Amino acid sequence: MLLKPHSRIQVFEGAEDNLPDRDALRAALAIRQLAEGLTADDLLLVLISGGGSALLPAPIPPVTLEEKQTLTKLLAARGANIQELNTIRKALSQLKGGGLAQAAYPAQVVSLILSDVVGDPMEVIASGPTVASVHSVQDCLHILNRYGLRAALPRSVKTVLARADSDPHGPHSCGHVLNVIIGSNALALAEAQRQAEALGYRAMVLSTAMQGRGTPAAHRADRHQCHGCPHPIPAATVTA
């Protein structure tokens, strides 16, 4: 990242080991400030990829970064999946769940998204900073109850959730945003199949939704090979 002297490009580093930290928080607040200064004549171009949740931490006061980190770690340790983790993250964030898009209003926003989540749900990838959240406070409470954490919530988290639950405006919309998936497991598999077919192979995509290890699709690939089908069977997995 060697920039020319006096470059208008700013580079922020943070989220070491994919964990939100003070450097990432400083970057997130700088991004929010930039977005809030835009007008209807501006265009905000956003590139989003996996890891964005850790790179864009901006807890809603009075929640602190440390409190949000602790809650996320507790949920993960008790088996919460990426969808559940991001539902909680969005509820406690100024920028996730469409918060970045809201900060940029009335500017137009174009968001180019690299998906690391099976199925490409845009509201889940990086916790959807340019996608309006479809989850409610009740969804958050249900998740916290499921993992036995509701009673142990810090007072600050309870305050933010109660405030959101009583917001007369409800969740904001993102009608000024264009979100586009430009890279994903499904797109990569489709291109791999196309390239294989161009070389004369008979290719098939067994699954675009494999997760974990030893999945049925992998066993099906083995069976194809055992039964005398030498054609390549491209398969890929995405884990969040």
Report on this model:
With 240 residues, the protein is mainly alpha-helical. The protein is 39% helix and 8% strand. It folds into two domains: 168 residues, Rossmann fold (3-Layer(aba) Sandwich), CATH 3.40.50; 53 residues, no CATH class. The chain has a three-stranded parallel sheet. The longest helix is centred in the first third of the chain and has 15 residues. One of its GO terms (molecular function) is glycerate kinase activity. This is Glycerate kinase. It is an enzyme of class 2 (transferase). It catalyses: (R)-glycerate + ATP = (2R)-3-phosphoglycerate + ADP + H(+).
Tally of discrete structural domains = 2
Total number of strands: 3
What is the helix content?
A: 25-40%
The rounded Rg comes to 21 Å
Strand content: 5-15%
CATH architecture verdict of the largest domain: 3-Layer(aba) Sandwich
Family: Belongs to the glycerate kinase type-2 family.
Pfam families: DUF4147
Catalytic activity: (R)-glycerate + ATP = (2R)-3-phosphoglycerate + ADP + H(+)
GO molecular function, one term: ATP binding
Fold topology:
Layout: H1 22-36, E1 43-48, H2 52-55, H3 65-77, H4 82-91, H5 99-104, E2 108-114, H6 137-146, H7 155-165, E3 177-183, H8 185-198, H9 216-226
Parallel strand pairs: 1-2, 2-3
Helix pairs in contact: 4-6
Protein name: Glycerate kinase
Pfam family, one: DUF4147
Enzyme class: transferase
Characteristic terms for this protein:
Rossmann fold, 8% strand, disordered C terminus, three-stranded parallel beta sheet, mainly alpha, 240 residues
